[in-house]
Design a protein that fits this description.
Layout lengths: L4 H10 L5 E5 L2 H13 L6 E5 L2 H4 L11 E4 L8 H7 L6 E4 L4 H13 L27 H7 L1
Parallel strand pairs: 1-2, 3-4
């Protein structure tokens, strides 16, 4: 769940026919995100729950029901087997956001061991932009019109 930013984006993509299940081990984050989803009128498209998915998985209610699983965790490889149980038996997608190559390596090894095929890694580079402001005087168009 985290800040709820990714959840908002996913909900915009899957509604009106899909439903997002989001989990966070931090109970306060779940509460705040749930309140925000309600304020933004999207609560019908999301279920937020307090849960440590590393230890507890995604729950029996989601067994073989998910089209995709998105992980943003320090140890995503610990959740791969739980993700397999959540994904539809016909298959699905798993996306893991990992800033460190060691996380990527361990997760890829676990994905391959769990039978995932077409495992890909992408790096998203960040470019810093320096913004400079230059203030210009406002052109007085009234004076220009009067001259004509």
């Amino acid at each position: 769940t985290g800040s709820g930013s990714l959840s908002h984006s996913l909900i915009r993509t899957i509604r009106p026919h899909g439903h997002l299940y989001t989990f966070d081990f931090h109970e306060q984050r779940v509460k705040l995100a749930s309140e925000e989803f309600a304020r933004h009128g999207i609560k019908d498209y999301v279920t937020s729950a307090h849960r440590d998915v590393c230890l507890e998985g995604f729950g029996d209610d989601l067994k073989h029901k998910a089209d995709a699983v998105f992980l943003d965790l320090p140890h995503p490889w610990l959740v791969v087997e739980h993700a397999v149980n959540a994904l539809k038996e016909s298959g699905g997608k798993l996306c893991s956001f990992s800033p460190c190559i060691e996380q990527v390596q361990q997760t890829c090894m676990k994905l391959e061991a769990a039978g995932f095929v077409d495992v890909r890694t992408q790096e998203c580079l960040q470019k810093e932009l320096m913004i400079h402001y230059k203030y210009c005087s406002v052109l007085n168009l009234d004076d220009e019109i009067l001259k004509k």
